[in-house]
Amino acid sequence: MTTATASATGVGAHAVRPDVPTKLSGDFEYSNDVRIPGMLFGATKRSPHAHARLVSIDASRALAHPGVVRVLTAADVPTSNLLGHIMSDQPVFVEEVARCEGEAVAFVVATSQEFAWAALDLIEVHWQPLTAITTIDDALATCDSPLHPLGNVIRELHIERGDDFTADVVVEATWETGRQDQLFLAPESAVAYPTGDGGVTLILATQDLHTDQHQLCTVLGLPPDRVHLINSGIGGAFGGREDITLQAHLAIAALVTNRPVKTTYRRGESFLAHPKRHPARLTYRVGASSDGMLQFVEAIVELDGGPYASTSQPVLGSACYFAAGPYRIPAVRVDGRVVRTNNPISGAMRGFGAVQACFGIESTLDLLADRLGVDPVELRRRNVLRDGDPFPTSGQVVRDQTPLDVLIETCVNLPYPDVDAHPLREPGGTGSTLMSARTQQGEGFALGVKNHMYGEGVREYSWAGLTLSRHGLTVSSSASECGQGIQTVLTQIVNDAFPGVAVTLAAPSTYMKYSGSSSASRQSWMSGSAVLGASRLLLAHLTERLNVDSVAFEEGEIVDAAKRRSLNDVLGDDEISVEYEYEAPPTSHGVEAFGTGDVHVSWMFVAHKALVEVDVELGLCTVLGIATAQDVGRAINPREVRGQILGGIAQGIGFAFNESLETRDGLSTNNSLTDYLVPTAADMPPVAIAMLEFPDPRSPLGIKGAGEPSSLSSTAAIAAAVRRATGQPVARVPMRPWDLTP
Amino acid sequence: MSSCFSPTTLDQAIDLLAAMPHLRVVNGGTDVMVGVNAGSAKVDGWLNLRRVEDLRGIEHIDRGLRIGGGVTFAEIEQALTHEVPALAMAARTVGSRQIRSVGTIGGNLATASPAGDALPPLLVLDTEVDLVSPRGMRTVRLNEFLVGPKRSACAPDELVAAVVLTDCKGAQHFAKVGTRNAMVISICSLAARLDAKRGHARVAAGSVGPTALVLDIAAGLLLQRDGADDFADTVAQSVSPIDDHRATADYRRASVRVLAQRIHHHLWSEQVGR
Amino acid sequence: MNDQHVRLNVDGETVTLAASPSTSLLRALRDAGHTAMQGACEQGECGSCTVVVDGRVQNSCLTPALACDSAEVQTVKSLLQADLAEAFIRHGAVQCGFCTPGFVVAAEQALDSPDPLSADDVRERLAGNVCRCTGYLGIVDAVLEVDRSRRASA
Question: pLDDT tens, B190-239?
Fold first, then answer.
């Protein structure tokens, strides 16, 4: 519903985001701000068990409550009760078995949100609890009686290159990572309304309009032209809005009651409803020659997927392909699997498997460096990929990418911002009550890598439309604006081609063609290129229309060799509309049994170093400073790129110390902001940033992805620093104080 | 029929509560509203104390320093930095600015959380709690007021009128362990006060037992200048922490021992020259 | 259910809100169409609902609406000053914007200080506002800059 009137300027400028003024004035409309007259309200009845058979549901007391209109269950699902981002394996409503805490079993529709929530207690659900599978090992041990008809293993992937897995010096280690939540601030909220022709429209906050639409069409048994989704303003996403949470419930409710229906999740249920970062166990054997040249990496990558697939398949791909980091390694073997458990569902979160892989390989290389007696950064220098080298896992030739030696040196030589001036320098928090006399400092370094775009053979494309009238330009793109700034990027690209012309962006919706998800750090390259293509096409149309050799824009007017004209002069009441579909360079699926091939479009690289101070008796840490060098391709908007980098580092800090949704027997123990602790302003250190601009030659504007890298190696660098300060092995993130004390 | 009553005097408040026992007492709301928002706490009506002037004010009386039950943590943090540093330090670590601006000491006592940051400092300051009801006022020592986890000796028709800190003399400190720099519930905390000249020592710990705990035996060891290790060991042995989702019992016990070591050293270094 | 009413002043305008005992000020305001504050947690842990009531900065999610009869409430709409807005823009302090109204209120309150603010002070005063997008540094820099410039021109 939000139409931004652009005020940005061209590529490379610190352009003002067009959406900022209304965000500052409190007028910006998020999905929970949407109100439609006559709307009803929904609330979700959820399983309190991690694994249980549904015995019966009795909604009669709820239905007797004044204000309750309907109670929906699996019986009300029109066509198919199964959906999923890739694999259709997740029920809209529990039919027979709930496989994780929080799974939806019913949806109450009432005349107020308060009535709807109150009515939840009046729905009696009888469950027969079943044994919960809560570890990767238990999942693997019970494959013969799987918790899901499709089996306990969602995906297995084997990658192998080279054949000599021997070396002078070998280290072995196992690492674990926790269950980070995206913790986007705006809880799930949406409105669905019937369109009178048997169809339904939703106003919501999603990263992927067309994939949501596709799933809803399957569930509702309706064609796409009857199911439309429009993005309102989105309050953050970070991967947490790629799956169906409330969409199907609302759509069914709207169709069944023939009224608009809205629901807003409360924070506790939000934690349970959307998939989170996969907990991982990574087991490494890494060998090097005695002069520090890597010979082989063997890695076992195991991910806890929760009961439903979500995006587990590509997450595993990412975790496996980046399990050996950005290094030159003659022999690599990765065995990966993602399994089903009755723990909370896992799915996409910024970094998408590459965060876990980075922690694994970087931690192992630090161990190796210790064993070799080599400085950890020097070990990276000796082994990092150079132009023409094969990527260690896929074997794909690395070409025309940012020189990694430059990346390393830039980071190493970047001074930390004034460390002594760092507020809250001592571990212990506000007021410095801990009187930490004996603190230890430590420094850590890590390199991160991940692909941008989907890869692994997925056909990838993005559409954009442009309409020019005498009032200016309207940009149509279904690329979701989650706060990351894609609409600003698109505006700046258009500004460059049409200087001085007023630009408006239509709200992303399924009325526009597919541009793919706002994920995988892909939209600036993909939708940016689509908008660039559309711009060129529009200029070509104008050239033809005016029957001249070429046109350009200056201060909002059309200029050709002969004269200068206003849009009004040229167009009058006319409009010119163009559309353009940009297709990414193709990738291939990994070769059968070896996983090798040109599986990625290209990569984003990043280096982090971190300085920490640790109260070693208490195991409490302060990050004194972070310095990072990031390969950004081309900084379309340096201020916004900086914002993305800082935001990713904050999430990396959170993952290093506190952020994990913990469970006992599959049930969450900290699904609230009181106990799921994210960094506050008091926890954020000063950060020095170097942006390396080596444009990717295959990217029409040289753009590379900028959103994810800052979350890749920040956690690993901090963990490395804490190891150095404490001498503790730090086999797991997040690091808890009791892991760090002797 | 109104369901929110906002008296302006303590007498009015007591009378209202006696007449309508179903009313839920609220001042800052920072504890009770969490459950209300989540739907787990039902409220039929409020007794809103925000306008009761008798609950405000910090003043010296015969018994000691009187802090009205409606005084906020922000006010305590600002007003008592020099006079009662242990309490001011604890107030500073409570929640956020938004919480401190309306959260009251009376509310903190009524909630009686084992992790309440203000409670260990109040205990070492020999605090008394003045409770008022239609039956008049009675005074209960704070350690007797804290009965169990989230349970206090406050009767259903009583209100916390004030706390009186009867002994603020001596070097004092409050230390809190949390895994984030601000807005964090303590994993363990320790408050202590030492006036070696007068032979007074008090120690209290938080988040390591069903209530904030007064540690009398340890306090005796605090008086021994060379007894830091014994003191720390005794503190660690005197607490009864549990494993929960925030921390392990072992870590809590080990940390409170570390805090005790540091506080002993710190308070004795403050004694030099007195 | 929301059968009672309170009359209060919101950003200079007299407003009547419907509420029940369990309705927070946040929900009562938002239900009445005042959406310049958000409820990201409704536990007092994120600050997205921050407003000023009778001069005190607080989480509107933890304030019972019925306790606000005749109260004076200020939100970002009456508290945001142009220099802070401009500094927020220039320092990249706004991305998704969900935390922004709460941050602005907390920041304007923090700036209402007799003494100059250090970075330490700003971080501590804003520690009750969670941001997931910006990593905070732009916000802290914006507030520090405004503190300096307001004192310089005072």
Answer: 999 999 999 999 999 999 999 999 999 999 999 999 999 999 999 999 99
A433 contacts on B by Cβ (under 8 Å):
89, 93, 173-176
From the list B2, B28, B183, the residue facing C128 with the nearest CB is B183
Task: List the one residue out of A740, A734, A672 whose CA is nearest residue A177.
Answer: A734
- Please tell me the distance from the alpha carbon of residue A715 to that of residue A651, in angstroms, as a whole number: 8
Are A267 and A283 contacting, i.e. CB atoms less than 8 angstroms apart?
Answer: no
Prior bond of B120 cis (ω within 30°) = no
Count of C-beta atoms within a 10 Å radius of residue C90? 15
Max alpha carbon distance in chain A (Å)? Answer: 82
Domain boundary among B137, B165, B193: B165
DSSP letter string, A697-721: TTSTT-----SSHHHHSHHHHHHHH
Average pLDDT of chain A, as a whole number: 95
pLDDT above 50 (res A6): no
Q: Which CATH number goes with the domain that contains B158?
A: 3.30.465.10
B5 at the C interface (CB within 8 A)? no
User: CB of A734 within 8 A of CB of A178?
Assistant: yes
Read off the tokens for A534. Answer: 């559309």
Confidence bin at B272 (pLDDT 50/70/90): low
Average pLDDT over residues A426-441: 84
Count of C-beta atoms within a 10 Å radius of residue A164: 10
Contacts C143 to B, Cβ<8 Å: none
Verify whether the Cβ–Cβ distance A32 to C1 is below 8 Å. no
Chain A neighbours, 3+ Cβ pairs < 8 A: B, C
Using CA of residue C77, residue C79, residue C82, residue C87, what is the dihedral sign?
A: negative
- A684 inside 8 A of chain B by CB: no
Q: What is the pLDDT of residue A138?
A: 98
> How many other CB atoms are found less than 10 A from the CB of residue A258?
9
Residue among C2, C45, C60, C133 with most chain A CBs within 10 A, to mutate: C133
Contact B207, B251 (CB under 8 A): no
* Calpha distance A286→C137 (Å, rounded): 38
The string of DSSP letters for A617-659 reads TTTEEEEEEEEEEEE-SS-SSHHHHHHHHHHHHHHHHHHHHT-
Name every residue whose Cβ is closer than 8 Å to that of residue A136 and which is 6 or more positions away in sequence.
Answer: A281, A302, A303, A304, A339, A341
What confidence tens digit (pLDDT) does each residue in A215-268 have? 999 999 999 999 999 999 999 999 999 999 999 999 999 999 999 999 999 999
Burial state string for A656-668 with b = 16 or more CB within 10 A and e = fewer than 16: bbbbbbebeebbb
C-alpha closest to that of A246 among A443, A51, A41, A79: A41
Distance CA B59, CA B68 (A): 9
CATH number for the domain including A552?
3.30.365.10
Q: Tell me the backbone φ, ψ of residue A489, rounded to 5 degrees.
A: -60, -50
The token duo for A116 is 């709807």
**Where does a domain end: B143, B165, B187?**
B165
Of B4, B44, B99, the CB nearest to C128: B99
Kindly report the number of other CB atoms within 10 A of residue B25's CB atom.
Answer: 20
Domain count, chain A: 3
What is the C-alpha to C-alpha distance for residues B195 and A357, in angstroms, rounded to an integer?
A: 56
Work out how many domains chain B is built from and give that number. Answer: 2
Torsion sign across C-alpha atoms A507, A512, A515, A516? positive
**Cα gap B215→A114, rounded to integer Å:** 47
Judged by DSSP in three states, B171 sits in strand
The answer to whether the beta carbons of residues A34 and A203 sit under 8 Å apart is yes
Domain endpoint, select from A532, A561, A583: A583
Closest Cα in chain B to A265? B38
